[in-house]
Amino acid sequence: xxxxxxxxxxxxxxxxxxxxxxxxxxxxxxxxxxxxxxxxxxxxxxxxxxxxxxxxxxxxxxxxxxxxxxxxxxxxxxxxxxxxxxxxxxxxxxxxxxxxxxxxxxxxxxxxxxxxxxxxxxxxxxxxxxxxxxxxxxxxxxxxxxxxxxxxxxxxxxxxxxxxxxxxxxxxxxxxxxxxxxxxxxxxxxxxxxxxxxxxxxxxxxxxxxxxxxxxxxxxxxxxxxxxxxxxxxxxxxxxxxxxxxxxxxxxxxxxxxxxxxxxxxxxxxxxxxxxxxxxxxxxxxxxxxxxxxxxxxxxxxxxxxxxxxxxxxxxxxxxxxxxxxxxxxxxxxxxxxxxxxxxxxxxxxxxxxxxxxxxxxxxxxxxxxxxxxxxxxxxxxxxxxxxxxxxxxxxxxxxxxxxxxxxxxxxxxxxxxxxx
Length: 421
Description:
This protein has eleven helices and nine strands. It is an alpha+beta fold.
C-alpha cells in the first residue's frame, strides 16, 4: 500500500512544485507593486488557468484525438518561456531605474501569459495523474488500493502548494534586488526542463531538422528526471538568500524603539525561510527515497519454458489448478520470448493472458498475498477479469481446455511476439 501511495504522491508533488513555486515567487514580486492592475491580471489568469487546465484535460481524455498532448504542452511552454524572458528583462532593468508606463503594461501582459502557460503545461500533467488511476481501475473504485492512490495524489498536491505558499512568504521577505535574483535563477532552472521537453517533441516529429540533435540531446533526455533536483536546488536559494540578507538599516525617522521593532519584524519574517527550507528537505527526501521505493519493481518468478508440438502448446491442468499465478515462456521463430500467465479463477475456469498489458507493456505481473499485481503500476487485478480485455488486464490469449491440459495455438503466440519487442 505504501508503494501505491508513493506512486501518486511523488509525481503529484513534483508537478505541483514546478507550478506553485515559480508562481509563489512571482506573487511576491507583484504584491508590493503600486500598479494594482498587474495584481488583478495575475489573480484573473490564475483562475482561468486553473479551469482551462481542467477543461483541456477533460477534452484530452474524452476525445483523445482532439488535443495532441505533446503539441499542446509545447505551445504552453513556448508561451511561458517567452513571457518569462520578458519579465526577467524588465525586472533586471528595474534594478537601475524606474519603470516606464509602457514597461508596466508589458509586464502585466507577460505576467498573465506566464501564469497561463505554467497552468496549461503543469496543470495538464497534474490532472492526468488521477485520470490514469481511474482508467486503470476499470470500475473497481471501491478498493483500498484505489483510495490509497487518490490519497497519495491529494497529499502530493497539498505538499506542493504548501511549498509554493512558503516560497511566497520567504520571497516576500527579500529586498527587491535579491528577489529579482532568485526569480531569474528559478526561471532559468525551470526553462531547462521545458526546453528539453520541446526539443524532444521536435526531434520525434522531425521539425526543422531537430532530429540531427539526437546525439547531443540524448544524455539530457535520459536524465531529464533529475531536473527536478536542479529546481529544488535553485529553490533553496530563496531561504539562503533570506538568511544572508543583512538587517534593515535604521531609517532617519525611526527612534530606537521603532528601529528595534523593524529588526524584530525582519527576524520573524526570516522564519518563513526556515519553514521553506524544511519543506524543501522533505520534498527532496520524498522525491529521492520515496521515488525509488515507488518505482521499485518486484522480481518476476522465472518463466517455465514450453515448446509447441503439432502446433499446440500444452500445459497440464494439474500444474495450474492451485489458484496461483503460473508463468510460461514460448520462444518464437524470431527468437522473441513470449510470456504467458495462467491462473485458475475457480472450478474449471482459467484466466489466460500474455504477461503484458496494453497500458504498461511487457513489464509483467506477480503474485502478492494471493492477488495478481501489475509490476509497473502496482494495480491489483480482479481474478475474474483476467482473460478479458481492457485496462491493466493481461492481454487475453485464446485457449481451450482439452485432454487434461490448457492448449494454446503456436500461431497465437507467434502473433503475440510484437508485445514483447
